[in-house]
Amino acid sequence: MSFGSRAHVAMQAYGPACIGIDPHAALLEQWGLEDSVEGLDRFASICVEAFAGQVAFVKPQSAFFERFGARGVVVLERTIEDLRHTGSLVVLDVKRGDIGSTAQAYAEAYLDDDAPMAADAITVSPFLGFGSLAPFFEVAEKNDAGVFVLALTSNPEGPEVQHARLADSSGTTVAGGVLAQLADLNAGAAPMGSYGAVVGATIGSADEDLSINGPILVPGFGAQGGTVEDIRRLFGDVIDHVIPSTSRGVLAAGPDVAALREAAARVNAELVGS
Ligand SMILES: O=C(O)c1cc(=O)[nH]c(=O)n1[C@@H]1O[C@H](COP(=O)(O)O)[C@@H](O)[C@H]1O
Fold first, then answer.
1. Which class for 226: exposed (0-12), middle (13-18), buried (19 or more C-beta within 10 A)?
2. Does the interface predicted TM-score (ipTM) exceed 0.90?
3. Choosing from 6, 8, 59, 95, which is the catalytic residue?
4. What domains are defined for the chain?
């Protein structure tokens, strides 16, 4: 089953939320863990216990594992493995992007089902041009995986690039161009396509057309200030495709597994109530 279909099924079953695994040094300390690979390992295991099969999406942030070098990456690899096929889909947040031939290798590393780090979907950056992402879409297609492309990111620096106009004199913004290309890739897919956009909950408003017939990952919800009201206002009639994503907002409830689960359930209840 395609990633788009699997995402749709998971959202129906659990609610739309994506919970991020972002083991910040401050959170390790708050959870009474050492800022070491052992602490990381324990943090990740608690997250797996709390979220696997409980929420539609879990998003490990690779950076916080890479911080510990090869041993941290081993923990990431095991975390992905433990989360996959539990009902929760793994969105690995690695924000990759490079010239096509290198993009091919990244795609094989994260989206080929036989790869040690294979996830259900990854995040990618379109800064080398949308066309450079083709290998990600091709490998994803072959493996029923998904790809989330940065469009309107949640950070305040994003607009300087994303609101710039394309060189083709159409007047379309860079973000609008990304969204239009995703809509083309997802055309005709039902219940939705596998190629998603990342649109922050904090962006205020969007002039771009967000109807891409694919999933829209919405970080910035929670710790960065985005609210359910923001999501409702921003996404209007594409709200069914929205996957609000929060990391610190839920992780702050740890290390108690029941408390983490409850915090994740509260996010879903709040969103479904919208
Ligand atoms: O791709 C992402 O997930 C992402 C895109 C974006 O525009 N903004 C953003 O915050 N993120 C990621 O989402 C997570 C946000 O974490 P919290 O702010 O703790 O909820 C981090 O792992 C970010 O790297």
1. buried
2. yes
3. 95
4. 3-272 (3.20.20.70)
